[in-house]
Amino acid sequence: MDSPVTIQPDGIKLQTEKMTPDELYHCLFEGRVFLFFKDHEELLHCYEVQDPVAIEEICKNPLEIENILKKHSEIDIGR
To answer: How far is 70 from 48, CA to CA, in rounded Å?
Structure first.
């Protein structure tokens, strides 16, 4: 299945009709990490990861993004 989040020459393209509610989608674009999800009310939520350590880890190993995000969120909660 094609991802609902793709990188185009002019930026990030979202096909929200292909998104499953409450599923996390992500992309790496110009050295930045973006997260997207659509809730059950069909509202789209978009976030940019700001933690430079997390961004570096994700850029080095994008297939592990969910584990990396979880690890860094646990660190933030523990502060």
So the answer is: 15
Tokens representing residue 75 in the block? 């660190």
The H helix count followed by the E strand count for the chain is 2, 5
What is the residue whose two structure tokens read 């961004």? 55
Cβ atoms 52, 31 nearer than 8 A: no
Helix or strand (DSSP H, E) at 47: strand 44-48
What is this structure's pTM? 0.84
> Hey, what are 22's tokens?
């409450």
Length of the chain in terms of residues written: 79
Percent of the chain with pLDDT over 90: 81
| Calpha distance 21→41 (Å, rounded) | 8
